[in-house]
Give the backbone structure.
Amino acid sequence: MTRRELLKAAAFAGASSCLGISAHAATTPTSDLITRAIPSTGERIGVVGLGTNNYSVTAPEELAARKEVLAHMWKLGGTLIDTAPAYGRSEEVIGELLAQLGNRDRYFIATKATAPNDDAAAGRAMIEESFRRLRTDHIELIQVHSLMGLDTLMPILQELKAARRIKYLGATTSSGRQHAAMADALRKYKMDFMQINYSIDDRDAASTLLPLAQERGTAVLVNVPFGGRRGSNVFARVRGQAVPTWASEFATSWAQFFLKYVVSHPAVTCAIPGTTKLAHLEDNQAAARGALPDASMRKRMEAFWDGLS
Ligand SMILES: NC(=O)c1ccc[n+]([C@@H]2O[C@H](COP(=O)([O-])OP(=O)(O)OC[C@H]3O[C@@H](n4cnc5c(N)ncnc54)[C@H](OP(=O)(O)O)[C@@H]3O)[C@@H](O)[C@H]2O)c1
């Protein structure tokens, strides 16, 4: 699909959602954007967002590449940008680039906070820095990063939410070792969002966490949908292989195959693949359109993956 066709598709998506056309119905390039409702409010967001743990850059050419991504993402239907104070200059770069582009209001910004040694003052200070670096007076979502300081930060996030400085609160992990702790957190607190690791190569979350999130009415962001920038990247395992023809109805690239596996789980609200390249952004955003694999196709995808050498 060319950029022009994608932009046309984005315009069509806006119009067709007004007409109430099903988000999952069409498979043509002009197919509707697939969106999911955030259970606590009913607000709908596109099922593919953006991870920015590789946005801590200063070189002009690197900033220009990221600016291109942030200039185009909303036009392709993606709105959620995930960042964190722990990602070096990421928040600052996003704040600066969105200010230059004048498109901050097109986006749903999700950042994170920690309270080292359960120090509430340090947690509050970190959050205030996020507002400053992101150059905004409202942040859509703040998440307790890797559950660090959960009990200290939850009352602070609830306070910020009551004051309408943030719209949603939640917590993250990217490690299976923290899944039991995340389940405890979900039961203990009314969280709008949970962010977790889940991919075709790492399906542990499907056994407990994803059903629990549905039961608790918690939206789910999926980090590391490709296995992580530094982790065992899923692309390496299929290098040199074409996407199977039985998957061509819903995926024309491996990125779409992997993302559609993730977002076709009914508990998942939005996957946040990290990218620094416009071509990859376009590929990833195309996974938020067209057909989604059903339950039996998902099983076939899993069997295919498990059968790879
Ligand atoms: N505990 C936590 O809260 C936590 C932990 C880890 C991550 N996260 C969040 O999750 C986000 C995603 O994680 P991640 O970025 O580490 O891993 P990922 O999304 O699984 O993989 C990103 C890698 O895939 C490449 N890629 C992206 N789109 C592609 C495409 N269409 N085709 C081929 N390659 C593609 C990227 O390279 P290019 O840049 O070249 O596109 C990058 O190397 C992070 O950015 C962060 O926001 C949160």
